[in-house]
Thiamine pyrophosphate-dependent enzyme
Amino acid sequence: MSIDVTSEKLNVQKGTLEQSIVFESGNEMAAYAAHQINYHVMGYYPISPSTEVAQFLDGMKAKGEHDIVLIPADGEHGSAGICYGASTGGGRVFNATSANGFLYMLEQLPVQSGTRFPMVLNLVNRSVSGPLNIHGDHSDLYFALNTGWPILMARDPQIVYDMNILAIKLAEDPEVRLPVIVSFDGYFTSHQKRRVQVIKNKKDVHDFIGDPPRNFPHALDRENPVTIGPYMNEPDYINNCYQQSEAMYNAEKVFDRISKEYAELTGREYPVLDLYRMEDAEIAVFMLNSAAEVCKDVVDRLREQGVKAGVISPNMIRPFPQRQLAEVLKNVKAITVGDRADSYGAHGGNMALEIRATLQTYGNASTKVINRVYGLGGKDFYADDAEHFFRLAQDAVETDFVEKPFDYFGHTPGDPDKAPQRIVNPLKKEDLVTGLITVTPDDETGELKVKIPPLRSLTKKPKRIASGHGACPGCGIFSGLELFFKGIEGDIVALFHTGCAMVVTTGYPYSAHKATYIHNLFQNGSATLSGLVEMFHERKRRGEFEELGLSDNFTFVMVTGDGGMDIGMGPAIGTALRNHKMIILEYDNEGYMNTGSQLSYSTPMGHMTSTSNVGSFQNGKPFHHKDTAQIMAATHIPYVFTGTEALDRDLLKKAAKAQWYAQNEGLVYGKILITCPLNWKSKDELGQEIVGAAVNSCFFPLYEVEHGITTITYNPEEKNKRIDVTRWLELMGKTKHLLKEESKDMLQEFRDEVERRWNMLKAKHESPYL
């Protein structure tokens, strides 16, 4: 994405540099600052609401607006590793993430700060949750407090831009030399557009931040090889930590210095504490980021009523501005601290605990502290709410007593009369029509014989997922899943990874699932279900189900898609090697569609996504797609298959086989190609035609691997239905550019790879030893 910059100057500009105006969101401004800095490397992985940062940078890259090497990782843990590895090379490194993704990379963050390699990470705050919530609070931010990274706060898009420029200069200062986090509120600051003043010329940005330091040790110095991250015993390690601690406290004075320098250039200064009408305040509210702006409006109203109120909002929370806070609070009688996350069991949120520690450290026993946890999961914070926070401080002053030092604000008391009621009736045992499909092993060969009745008779079998889900028109997930489930007999327990199928079938207090359903995150679904499978079999072995009158069997199915076999591949392979009795079913929609169509490793070469844009400097995804079916076959599990709703009886037979193997031998992996009209840019009604063309072009061949023996179950060549891949590509808008003359080389490379994989598959079909 390219941001249009006007030449108009803001009237309030006081700096010496020429500046321009844009009207953009926080995510866009993080990307804009990054492209001006022109980082060397960005390792990234999509997670809402930070995903857009990489998308905007990729759009700019397609137009040649920067030189940043954008590396799509297999997950956030991988993206953090990419960034750490890149930073050891002495260049500039950038990343953006949120919530559970931040926690997934958390192990890597102390490694980077402990070895003192600078970079900048934008943490776009979102709830770390179970059950799943994707909206903004500070629960991810609070996990960052002990990582050893200085943390800068950004209340609005203007500050996001400025802090990103200040952050890299802070990180690379010789007195600091630490990676830095820029934190801003997801779906508030990240997506809401504001008028922003930017430095017009990239050269001015580079002159301010300077060149990357030349004197830091790095891994690419032939004349000075270094050992990075050695094993340390206790005496040395505590000294290393002491030096890191000193660097962290240095960050406060360095930030103060460089923010003054920045103010001279731009007219915008960021002291460690943002203070609003605190000069004579008797009551105050302490807030992080966007909610502080709401409180400022309320302060103006209270001041008109004669109430001496003020707002404190730090621009930096690591290191925590203890000395400055103590000075500001020495004449404040009461302060309400808003924490947008709970530190469970600690009798307060993290900010309140640190403010209480500040007051105690500086001998202030008079300022009363009231703490409220608010705004969790993106719950809005309005002016009336802010007024309530000031009123809590006023009451404490008037009564000289704090009735509830810690509590939640905005929660709803439980009401037994409003308990959720079941709306979708679960499938009863008598509803599960069985015996229509039979699977029997051959007595001599052991080969499974599957008998499928006429398809019309399978309409007697009830749907596993109720109608009324919120999928996009033409979505192929549920037609594909329901066809597969028609081949399954009896009860199932299903686990869904995070993704489109999960999001649109569950929305508390409702659920479209008629049987037991579990959710876990992308990277851990297969491990989670394998634990449940083993619990089932062990409890059954011990006779516990018979005691409870629950002796029925289950088929355990994990449903994954939207890139779940990228970030979740490691646990899936572990599950395969352990050979648990379950089915992993991947719906392949060729991207991370639930977060807005970013490329995944299953995206084919050349296809356009929001992180593989098409432009004069880039032509869609630059590398080939991952063949997950072949990867899983290499683990030597009993059964692997591919399927699609375009050949219904083929998929039904494979579903029946999958159930037999999952109940009798071990793990099954299946991959079904499904359409995503929204992000494939195709017509809603063309779903079966598109996936059918993918099969007939041999891009998505239909086959199965039983005990290592490959059988092609549908050969378009033998049926004279083979088509060129262009016949498939022309059905989708995301691939129209590949049909143009300027894309002929990439198209040929893609065509050659499809042919190579098809010929390899035919060779395996012909030989049981391949």
User: Anything to note?
Assistant: Residues 5-11 have pLDDT under 50 and may be disordered.
